[in-house]
């Protein structure tokens, strides 16, 4: 039984959950346990009083005895009602606190997950785990399990009393137990399988909604509303199918319990009746009625308990999924024992670096470059040649698979990643703007900055006028209420606001008009003084003054030098440069 219900992984996960979230609640769990046991005894006492009451009625007893018995019954049920209020309040509190702790850990986890995780999983996967699945687990721990324990205790105490009343009769009733176990065992594996698929399908549904909403502009412009509807409909239909399948499997349990219980009642009424009529047993009519009443009392808890096992199988899948996220590799854990990197100026060296993305596509097969302090170094090359990847490797968003990257001669792998990144100010190719005001968006790069500094940065990035115009108004999800160039200028302002020894500009001015671009570039010249500047661009006008230009082509370094040198040879650089000049002239 236990083997079929819990896999090795389940056992590890349950132990983990218990140790981290429930163990510290032991005192409260004991309180709940005691209350539930009291509640179980209330039922048992109810049977005793009922039997006594019946005997008073049958045997023409004293009226006041009857009143006394009724009083006890009311008192007992009043106590039960009080406990019925206290226990759920307590248990939901405990479960919610445990979930608060779990969510807190997940929150810390997800921001430290490696970049590679996000190349594969999207936000809906995290939402599914951190919202839906944690919620499901919370329900299971705070309600379902507590009810199951209550049911179990009721059954245990009442059956104990029934055994005490008549062991033979009770054991006769248990003949059907093996059948129930067999059914539970056979459905539990199935339930797990279906629940696992259901989580995948729910994830797919959420992803399709997420992608539709964030890509609605493309959806509309490409006239793909129907495609999106079909995609979401398909996922939604699969959710329905799996829900029905899950229900069909779970629903096998109840009828089998009901059928067995009919059988039980026949046994008890027949067997009990026989025992009353026969002289060999010390049972009277009142005992048999009380006995049957006892069976009725444990009947509902038994039904509920059998369903609990089905729900538990489904919840184990939730636990498994959440645990996978908890166990995912993150940077913070990996960097725990490493020192922080600290320097005022930095020489960066890339030495014979090899790298492939997780999908296996190799980008670099041994590339070397130098980025010197006080110099502006440019990387040019056709699209997809690996320029952004170099920047990602320098900031250790990904790890090199061969060679090394050094800052001032020290391997970056020996330091904490966050300490390395704190030395960078970056204008990335894909600008990310949050749904807050322009001012707050700029401040994001350096929350400690003063008002005057923000003004200055906004001015240099030519976003100051808009920043004042919009004031505290938010810019919409992902900056949807801004133009591409405005978003880019926010990113540029962030770079100006963040004093750091390394300045990285990845197509930093690609969305700006020529005039604004010129002004921003002039401001950058000032900012670059004394810093290690790395510029990635398609626009050759921004690299004319570079101290060094690297030309890369499908992950290989093909040329290097300054503009004048590269223009002398019949280089790739020269042909790209001339192509752009003639394009601009035409
Ligand atoms: N996260 C990723 N996972 C897998 N492959 C990737 C990933 N990011 C980029 N690539 C691949 O790596 C190669 C280099 O990409 P990279 O972004 O470095 O090019 P790039 O030179 O910056 O191009 P562009 O000028 O278009 O920005 C490309 O073939 C690209 O498809
Ligand atoms: Mg790029």
What is the averaged pLDDT score? Answer: 90
Helix content: 55-70%
Q: Specify Rg, calculated over alpha carbons.
A: 36 Å
| Main beta sheet | 6 strands, mixed
Enumerate the distinct ligands.
adenosine-5'-triphosphate, magnesium ion
Report the total helices.
Answer: 22
CATH topology-level name of the largest domain: ABC transporter transmembrane region fold
Q: For the largest beta sheet, what order do the strands appear in spatially? A: 6-7-8-3-9-10
Write the layout of secondary structure elements.
Blueprint: H1 2-5, H2 8-22, H3 26-58, H4 63-112, H5 115-120, H6 123-165, H7 167-173, H8 177-214, H9 216-221, H10 225-251, H11 253-277, H12 285-327, H13 331-334, E1 348-356, E2 362-371, E3 376-381, H14 387-394, E4 402-407, E5 410-411, H15 417-421, E6 424-427, H16 438-443, H17 451-460, H18 464-470, H19 484-497, E7 502-506, H20 514-528, E8 532-536, E9 548-553, E10 556-561, H21 563-568, H22 572-585
Parallel strand pairs: 3-8, 3-9, 6-7, 7-8
Antiparallel strand pairs: 1-2, 1-4, 4-5, 9-10
Helix pairs in contact: 2-12, 3-4, 3-6, 3-12, 4-6, 6-7, 6-8, 6-12, 7-11, 8-10, 8-11, 8-12, 11-12, 17-19
Bound molecules: adenosine-5'-triphosphate and magnesium ion.
Adenosine-5'-triphosphate is lined by residues 119, 357, 359, 361, 363, 381, 383-389, 429.
């Amino acid at each position: 039984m236990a083997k079929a219900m819990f896999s090795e992984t389940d056992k590890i996960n349950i132990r983990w959950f218990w140790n981290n979230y429930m163990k510290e609640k032991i005192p409260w769990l004991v309180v709940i346990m005691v209350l539930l046991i009291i509640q179980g005894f209330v039922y048992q006492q109810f049977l005793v009083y009922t039997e006594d009451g019946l005997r008073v009625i049958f045997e023409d007893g004293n009226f006041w005895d009857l009143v006394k018995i009724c009083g006890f019954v009311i008192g007992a049920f009043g106590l039960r009602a009080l406990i019925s209020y206290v226990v759920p309040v307590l248990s939901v509190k405990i479960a919610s606190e445990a979930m608060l702790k779990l969510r807190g850990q997940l929150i810390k986890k997800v921001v430290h997950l490696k970049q590679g995780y996000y190349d594969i999983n999207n936000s809906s996967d995290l939402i599914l785990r951190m919202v839906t699945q944690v919620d499901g687990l919370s329900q299971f721990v705070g309600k379902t399990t507590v009810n199951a324990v209550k049911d179990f205790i009721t059954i245990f105490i009442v059956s104990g009393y029934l055994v005490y009343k008549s062991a033979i009769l009770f054991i006769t009733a248990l003949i059907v137990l093996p059948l129930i176990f067999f059914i539970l065992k056979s459905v539990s594996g199935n339930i797990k399988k279906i629940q696992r698929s259901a989580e995948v399908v729910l994830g797919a549904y959420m992803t399709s909604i997420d992608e539709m909403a964030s890509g609605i502009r493309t959806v509309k412009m490409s006239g793909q509303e129907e495609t999106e509807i079909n995609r979401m409909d398909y996922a939604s239909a699969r959710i329905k199918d799996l829900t029905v399948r899950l229900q069909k499997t779970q629903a096998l349990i109840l009828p089998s319990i009901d059928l067995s219980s009919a059988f039980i009642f026949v046994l008890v009424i027949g067997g009990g009746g026989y025992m009353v009529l026969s002289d060999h047993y010390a049972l009277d009519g009142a005992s048999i009625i009380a006995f049957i009443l006892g069976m009725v009392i444990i009947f509902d808890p038994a039904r509920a308990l059998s369903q609990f096992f089905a729900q538990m199988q489904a919840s184990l899948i939730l636990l498994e999924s959440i645990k996978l996220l908890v166990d995912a590799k993150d940077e913070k854990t990996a960097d725990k024992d490493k020192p922080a990197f600290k320097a005022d100026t930095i020489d960066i060296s890339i030495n014979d670096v090899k790298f492939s993305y997780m999908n296996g596509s190799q980008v670099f097969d041994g590339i070397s470059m130098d980025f010197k302090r006080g110099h502006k170094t440019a990387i040019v090359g056709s699209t997809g040649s690996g320029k952004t990847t170099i920047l990602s490797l320098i900031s250790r968003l990904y790890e090199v698979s061969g060679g090394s990257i050094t800052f001032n001669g020290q391997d970056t792998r020996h330091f904490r990643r966050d300490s390395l990144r704190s030395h960078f100010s970056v204008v990335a190719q894909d600008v990310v703007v949050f749904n807050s005001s322009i001012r707050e968006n700029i401040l994001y790069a350096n929350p400690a900055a003063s008002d005057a500094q923000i003004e200055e940065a906004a001015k240099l990035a030519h976003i100051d006028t808009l920043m004042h115009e919009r004031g505290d108004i938010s810019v919409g999800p992902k900056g949807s209420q801004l133009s591409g160039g405005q978003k880019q200028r926010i990113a540029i302002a962030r770079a100006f606001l963040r004093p750091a020894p390394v300045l990285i500009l990845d197509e930093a001015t690609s969305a700006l008009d020529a005039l604004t671009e010129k002004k921003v570039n002039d401001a950058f010249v000032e900012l670059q003084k004394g810093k290690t500047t790395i510029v990635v661009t398609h626009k050759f006008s921004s690299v004319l003054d570079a101290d060094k230009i690297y030309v890369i082509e499908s992950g290989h370094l093909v040329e290097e030098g300054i503009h004048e040198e590269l223009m002398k040879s019949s280089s790739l650089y020269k042909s790209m440069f001339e192509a752009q000049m003639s394009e601009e002239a035409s």
